[in-house]
Each structure stands twice: as structure tokens, then as C-alpha cells.
What does this fold into?
Amino acid sequence: MEYRQLGASGLRVPVLSFGTATFGGGNEFFKAWGNTQVDDAKELINLCLDAGVNFFDTANIYSKGLSEEILGKALEGLRNEVLISTKATLPMGDGVNDYGSSRLHLIKQAEDSLKRLQTDHIDIYHMHSFDATTPVEETLRALDDLVTSGKVRYIACSNFSGWHLMKSLSVSERYGWSRYIANQAYYSLLDREFEWELMPLAIDQNVSTIVWSPLASGKVSGKFRRGQPIPADSRTVQGGAHGPATNFDRLYNIVDVLDEVAEETGKSVAQVSINWLLQRPTVANIIIGARNQEQLKQNLGAVGWNLTTDQIKKLDAASDLTPIYPYWHQRQNPKLIPPPIQY
It folds into this structure.
């Protein structure tokens, strides 16, 4: 297993982490992801650890705490061997203060997560979304207090716009508070908008990227095929998919090239899709999920080898996406775009 430094920190993480949104199946949305309970979770975790994956990602919102509870039970006796990432900000109840990144909400949610996870600290605490109703200073001071108290080791963000992240980094620098070392972002061969603003920012500010949904809800896993019905067991059909509406002609063109590269490498389409992401600038970690051991073993096979430069170029060309303004205008002046960014 390869390990990479996480942003401007001393923390090293494996290039793959295991996402536990499949744990619990607490509502219809998360049932479409999975319904893993404690015994099966322990088996999946042991498979991860055997492969060198000691990083586990969850969130308070996943099945309203069930994912954290199951992860905590499944990690019993293993806490000192693993890294745990969880999140807050999204609604956890119907009360007026049951959501957001206010001091009141964050401290309560951190303490609740610690109890569910059966641990005394969270290794990486993500803001699951940007809260534009709370002053950035309030959020970051509360997070800095959690770090100072020892309840949180590092902080990170997720699903932020470029200006959200840049403003947060600026405020942290101004007051000497803990800064976001990573951005957990939606990124895949199918959905490459991350590259337009967030990737250049991450390079400039030394913020690592943790990728979620690297297979675009299974669309670039090899299950979706031209001329074939959408798989009945896919998240798309079962109501658990993320992301914008899919241009299926473009998707199938990408899958055609994935098939070519998979045949050249002797790897699966899903493994090629994940390995492509590992070659992208700023990507330090990719969250893989699995409903069962076979899916997990397949995803673990995405590391330990690299696509060739020519194979990466083929996949880049097949998945190229015309950006929105001002990024299409910036493309007209490639000499002003520093390497390693390639639009």
C-alpha cells in the first residue's frame, strides 16, 4: 500500500480509505448504498487492514449515526491501529440548531460522534458542506478549540466552492488557527469539474484531495454498458446516486476507452477508473466503498500498479469536458496555466 502526505500536515494516509456509508442502511437512500451490520463490517475492516488500508471514513449523517455506531463496534480493540474520519454540518434533527457549522452545533456533534465511535478523538473532522449562515470565524475557532482540546487531530472540508475554501484558509492564517489540510471532493472520470477551480487552489495552497464517489455511483465501474439496461442493483435505479444528470452518450464513450485500457492492463474497468484518479494532481486518498467482500477485493486491486502515460492521455481525451465560464476562457491562454494542471 502506498502512503501519501495529507496537505500541509505531518499525517500520512494510505492512498485508499474505506467509506462506511454502506453501514447501517438506516433509510431508503442509504439502503441503496448498503445495509452492512457489525459482523460483516468486522470482516470488511479486517480485509482492509490486511491490505494496508487503515483509514476509515464515515459521517454523522450516514443513517443518522448508525454508520458511526457500527464502525465503532467493529473497530473495538483496533482503535490505535486506524485513522477515523467523520463529518458534521448537515441536518441531524428538526430543531433550528440541529444543522450547520455553528459553535453550538459542531461541539455537540463532535461529542455525539465520539460516543458513537467509542473513541476519545477523531483523526480528521470534516465540515460536510459550507455553512453560509454562520461566520467563518465562528466555525474555525470552534474547530481550533476541538483540536486544542485533543478531541480532533486535524480538520478538513468537503463540498466547498473554491472561494469557501480560500476564505477559510485565509481566516485560519490570520488568527493562527488550525487550517483545513484536505478537501473531500466529488471527482471521477465522468465528473471532472473539480479540476477547474478546486484543483488549482489545492495545488497553490497545499491542500490534499480525498476523493469521494470515484466511480460516479458505479457509472464508470463497468456495470453500465451501451445498449444494455441500467443494472437493477445500481444506486441510480435504487435512488442512492449523486451528481448531475448523466449524458449517457459521453459515459459510454468513456467506458469504451476504459474497456480498451482494461484489456491492455489486465485490470477491471473499476480498477482502471480508480488508478486514473491516483495519477491526478493533489489526490492523496480515494474513498472506496463495498457492500461485500468481493467488491472490496476488486477495489483494493486498483493500487500497486500505474497506468502508462499514453493510457492516461487516452482516458483524459475520452472524458474531456468543456468547462463553464471563466474556465473555457482561461483555456484559450494555456501559457498562463502552470503545470501540472492540464485542462
User: Anything to note?
Assistant: The radius of gyration is 20 Å. The chain has a mean pLDDT of 94. The chain is about 40% helix and 15% strand. The longest helix spans residues 248-265.
